[in-house]
Structure to design on (186 residues):
């Protein structure tokens, strides 16, 4: 890894997460004369869902910066298994492989011309609003080792099992997203 950027320590009020989180993450993506970091490690003060969701939204959607969130007390315990799990997440997000399949047993997949695809639809939980949507998603392999599986999703009518935009989801997986191309090339 190259040199790390200096981090920020911010105080976040769970009742008003927008005030602190969005500007802090934006500073990483907009520092004049510096490239944005490839990944941000966010140490959360507690397992606070509101803060976690806002960090993920700002990083993933608004700033398009890879990120991994950890909980401070778990991270400070120096538990080898926890650190290993964090390292696996970071490795995958930076384009690495966490497993390796024996190419001699993969047949046509080993040739690098086969994509393995998974599609699923998740429905609202029982008791949800009658107009709550379902979510259709797709994952597809992008490498010959079946190690990287970028995803895409679409919101659709609730309780609908058939995927509304299956063609669009498949097309999105055939065009490898730019961040993945950059990581695979680097």
């Amino acid at each position: 890894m190259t040199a790390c950027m200096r981090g920020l320590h911010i105080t976040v009020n769970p009742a008003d997460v927008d005030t602190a989180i969005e500007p802090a993450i934006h500073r990483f993506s907009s520092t004049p004369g510096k490239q944005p970091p490839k990944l941000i490690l966010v140490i959360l003060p507690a397992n606070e869902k509101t803060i976690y969701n806002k960090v993920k939204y700002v990083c993933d959607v608004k700033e398009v910066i890879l990120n991994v969130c950890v909980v401070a007390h778990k991270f400070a315990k120096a538990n080898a298994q926890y650190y290993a799990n964090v390292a696996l997440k970071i490795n995958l997000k930076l384009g690495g492989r966490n497993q390796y399949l024996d190419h001699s047993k993969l047949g046509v997949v080993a040739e690098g011309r086969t994509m393995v695809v998974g599609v699923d639809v998740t429905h609202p939980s029982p008791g949800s609003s009658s107009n709550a949507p379902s979510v259709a998603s797709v994952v597809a392999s992008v490498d010959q080792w079946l190690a990287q599986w970028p995803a895409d999703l679409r919101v659709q009518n609730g309780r609908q099992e058939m995927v509304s935009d299956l063609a669009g989801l498949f097309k999105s997986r055939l065009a490898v997203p730019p961040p993945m191309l950059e990581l695979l090339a680097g």
User: Anything to note?
Assistant: The radius of gyration is 19 Å. The first strand starts at residue 39 and ends at 44.
